[in-house]
Amino acid sequence: MEAFGQSIPFDRELARQDVQGSLAHAEMLASVGLIAKKDFTAIRKGLQEIRRDIEDGKFVFDPANEDIHMSIEADLTRRIGDAAKKLHTGRSRNDQVATDLRLWTREKIDAITERLRLLMLAFVAVAERERDIIIPGYTHLQRAQPVMLAHHLLAYVEMFGRDRERLADCRRRTNRLPLGSGALAGSTLPLDRELIRDRLGFDSLCENSMDAVSDRDFVLETLSDLAIVAIHTSRLAEDIILWTSSEWGLAKLDDAWSTGSSIMPQKRNPDLLELTRGKTGRVVGSLVSLLTVVKGLPMTYNRDLQEDKEPLFDAVRTVEFVLECLTEFLPTLRFNKTRAAEMLKDGYLDATVLAEYLVEKGLPFRSAHEVSGQLVRLGEDSGRQLGELSLEEMRAVSTLITNEIFKRLDPARTPTSYATAGAAGPRSVTKALGGWKRKLAKKA
After folding, report:
1. Residue pLDDT, tens place only, 194-223
2. Are 149 and 340 in contact (CB under 8 A)?
3. More confident residue, 20 or 347
4. CA–CA dist 76, 69 (Å, integer)
5. For residue range 115-127, what is the model confidence (pLDDT) as tens digits?
6. Out of 121, 325, 377, 385, which residue is the most buried by the measure of CB atoms under 10 Å away?
7. Closest CA to 349 of 339, 361, 358, 341
8. Rounded-to-integer distance, Cα 130 and Cα 150, Å
9. SS3 state of residue 265
10. Residues carrying an active site annotation
11. SS3 label, residue 335
12. pTM for the predicted model, two decimal places
């Protein structure tokens, strides 16, 4: 039973936060007169020593102790004697672990938010570097319309920007203090929760003691946000895997970020990207795991909640490492401008331009769509692109078409004519690049 219930092998991750919370709690106990000043001085000195040992990797996590809280308290008792036994006054491991976990999660939200910022900056830099490349944009994995490569890259900046917004929102709900809620009902002692809140940098108090010790919504929300981050990295990975394939040949992997085959010497395998795609399942699995743990728990604290930590810790480590690698990888990706130009020649990417031209001439869009479709079929049957059809052939389908259409039927020039805000042309791209540079200049 001791082995089955033990959490010290993984909740040791919370060691720094446990000391941090205990220091604030001890200060509060001294402030309200529940422990003597000399006891507080001894407790503070002992906890500071323990913190240094933890930071230096010297602290011994005794497997005889059930969890991180008992491990630190036992070590503190060994160092300073009976004064350590007063530290647990007015608190339970229930509100203690909830506080530790909120401190840890808050710190990791900040770290991942910063990693996202750095990745977004890498995207902006590559988008600016490659802003003269036009590629086919796709729907249903079929060539659709010409777009600036920079616009495609900036689409991921938008995604990761939303991820940062979600994490910032999650942080606000995470940053509430449970300590002082006791096991579930609070305390008869005159605890000053506001003092602890201030010392630990929480925005507010958890207002209901029963909810405070049993709430893991903030973990679920963090995992949900991380799962979306992972899904975005997986979508990115899939795009680049396609781009760097022999069939597409739009980009080339740097040797530092690819691997060879054990049997085929010509191979350059996108292992980083495939692992990024694969690890998404791991992060999503962490979310599903904890959703399953908490779905039927009665009030208030139940030991099931011990199972909240490993999924969270693993998801955070995974996402942090993926973001770090992608940030380093992205600038090494080299695009093939010649291949991009070749890809524009197939797929009738200017068919929509033709339809919109006819709309400008007064033709209803549905009719313009039909005319453009007929001309595409004519091109397919004769093995020609729209710009290679004669004016006579076009006018045989619609007399609204004039010679000026040939100035528009060039997919390489099409993006310059996009007029709407947020479109895939140079005006929107220039505006977006400037906007993101300003937004991402600061960490916050």
Report:
1. 999 999 999 999 999 999 999 999 999 999
2. yes
3. 20
4. 11
5. 999 999 999 999 9
6. 385
7. 341
8. 6
9. coil
10. 140, 261
11. strand
12. 0.94
